[in-house]
Structure formats: C-alpha cells, structure tokens
Amino acid sequence: MFTTTLFVIYVHHQVFRAMHLQVFLYDTFRRHARTYVEPAIITKWKASQDDMLLRLSGENAIIGGDMRADSPGHSAKFGSYTVTDLKTNTVIHVQLVQVSGN
C-alpha cells in the first residue's frame, strides 16, 4: 500500500511537471485555507445568520431541529444538531456535539 501510494504520487508529479503545472503541497493548501478561505466562510455565515435571525424575530417563525449522529460501532459519540426555518427550508444554525457517556 505504502509503495503504491508513493508510486502514484511520483507519477502524478512527473505528469504535472511535463505539463508545466505547479501544484500546492497539502501543507500550503491548509495554510491558505486556514488563513483566507475558512475566515471568509465563517464571516459570511455569521452575517447571513444575523440577517436571518433579525428577519425571523419580526414574525411568527416555525422552526424545527434534528440531530444526526454517526460513529463506528453501536453508540454514537459525535453528532450535529441543525435548526431549520420550516417556512423557507433554510438552515438557521448547526451545532456540533459530543455525546457524553453517562
């Protein structure tokens, strides 16, 4: 498995070099994503969420929530809870949760 992976990476590297393509290393991609992409997404999401909550506060909103949990095995350890505006079918909030084992 390890040698096959290295071979595939080597072949891709050779093909990209022959095509004169520059490829980002994974660490470079993660640094750019962490520095630029993720903050932009979070800022846009929070602004959109604030606008939505302001709009919903002025009307009789119908909201619903649902939790989805998934883990290998029989009991879920992690999940996400989503609150949705049922009139417009728009997600209002998503919360990631860790289920405590009592």
Task: Please describe what this structure looks like.
- The chain has 102 residues and is of the alpha+beta class.
- Helices cover 48% and strands 24% of the residues.
- It is flat and about 60 Å long.
- The model has no long low-confidence stretch (mean pLDDT 86).
Q: What is the tally of beta strands?
A: 3
Count of alpha/pi helices: 2
Strand coverage percent: 15-25%
Largest sheet, spatial ordering of strands: 1-2-3
Structural class: alpha+beta
Distance between the termini: 40 Å
pLDDT < 50 runs, ≥5 residues: none
- The whole-angstrom Rg is 22 Å
Arithmetic mean of pLDDT: 86
Helix content: 40-55%
Concise overview:
By secondary structure, this protein is α+β, with helices and mostly antiparallel strands. The protein has helices spanning 2-18, 26-57, and strands at 63-69, 78-85, 90-98.
Question: Secondary structure elements and their pairing?
Answer:
Elements: H1 2-18, H2 26-57, E1 63-69, E2 78-85, E3 90-98
Antiparallel strand pairs: 1-2, 2-3
From the structure above, extract its key features.
about 100 residues; alpha+beta; three-stranded antiparallel sheet; about 50% helix
